[in-house]
Amino acid sequence: MRKPVMAGNWKLYKTAAETSAFFEKFMPAIADRKRAEIVICPPFVNIPAAVAASSASSVEVGGQDLFWLQEGAYTGEVSGNMLAAIGARWVIIGHSERRQYFHETDETVLKKTQAALASGLNPIVCVGERLEEREAGATESVLRTQFTGGIGALTPEQFAKIVIAYEPVWAIGTGKTATPEMAADAHRVLRAEVAQRYGQAAADACRILYGGSVKPDNVKGLMAQEEIDGALVGGASLDPASFAAIVNF
Ligand code: PGA
User: I need a surface site. Which of 183, 189, 214, 249 has the fewest CB within 10 A?
Assistant: First the structure.
């Protein structure tokens, strides 16, 4: 049985004060904490505020990115060890916005995943096709390429520690969710890749989250799919009531 992960990706939103205000409302609203692992990923500078506000609970905090080296002359970057040192337990890697606006590739995604694991962080590694790729019937091949060119190069021990997020780019921030069946189909493609590379037991254990316009009113249908092991939530994770409704699906 795979335990669901419900992760909030706050992107470039909220100050430290707004982070604390979120948790004040969010913590009392999450009734059933055992059902899913709950992760919130604020901007780097607000991780300490999020860690402080959630320390007495099972809610965990993550970064939205990291650099693949632990230190050096790399202006503006943040390392896995730095994230771990301030209490982050998770990190999102290879989000489509990082790929699109900051030129991340499957190769950098792999390096960042290895660095995160070396720092003891739980990576949530994102994959997903763009609209034109889906329309061209290339969804499966895009997912396979992202898998083999990136996380498919991890060792079995490393792979066992990651969570995959399937995020069709056309569904992110657009209000267009993939139907539960479309998401499950993509998850099956990814799980088959895992089985082929790491074996059936690894595929059965691997948690694959869906991301892209997950909202309180569509989370139930998505989570009803056997293939979907949780959600990576952007916009709807910014509001404590709406993220609590998603967590308590
Ligand atoms: P969204 O973002 O829920 O706002 O579509 C999801 C994501 O980018 O992780």
Answer: 189
